[in-house]
Amino acid sequence: MIKVKYVDSIKGSSKENEDVVSFYNNYCWIIDGATDLFDASKQNGFSVFTFVNEVSSELCLLCNDKKSLDDIIFQAISNVTLKYFSSFDFPEDYFAKLPTFSFIFCREIDNNFEYLMLGDCFLIIDGKIITDKRISEFSKKNRLKLEESMLKNKEINENARLRIFRETRLKANKIGGYPIGSMNPNCIKSALKGRFSVENVSRFILMSDGYYNFYDPLKSLVENSMKIRSNYRIDKLYGKKDDASVLEGIFI
Question: Which one of 1, 106, 155, 183 is at 20 to 30 Å from 84 when CA atoms are compared?
């Protein structure tokens, strides 16, 4: 079984915290919603915050040791998406303009720890860092474009920033693009997965990228959270402070 030792989710500068961190029996997860770049909430009547929290609620209902992690989260996304749309029969361009998200979904079963991840969330096992690096190339390109804009203009025009982010978002789950969670449950087919024995593992930590980017392994999670929470600085390149979430567990 898993015993959760510490949980925190710190809202950034956006109106809503688009991270959700939760656990249920021998399961735990973080879902990190991506910022709405296409006014989807106005057009469709639901926000990124609403979607990720509804998926999390579905996971609590669907966790079942007889099913794979893939099947459980596939069904959770399906159930929520079908609340708003009658099918999944839309091109990826359409889904890219709707809520997208990174996630890590884990459980302990039969003395083994299983995980499923998609996007830039992090799993730390006794100091070993596991993440999905496939989005990193696109994040680095975004940063370079933003830095170039900053050098030329000394500040970044909000429209220019939005254009850069939109160009990248439209590559979500497309050939030549990057795999990420979306309202199309078939996105789960691209998730990374792993399994290992818990016999020699003392603890594990789940993090969203907003937490990991400020994480100091030499400090306790309480100290890390206090530092993140007290930092009100807006990132000049990205124009916001990201949400930050963490969960620490041990095996009992």
Answer: 106
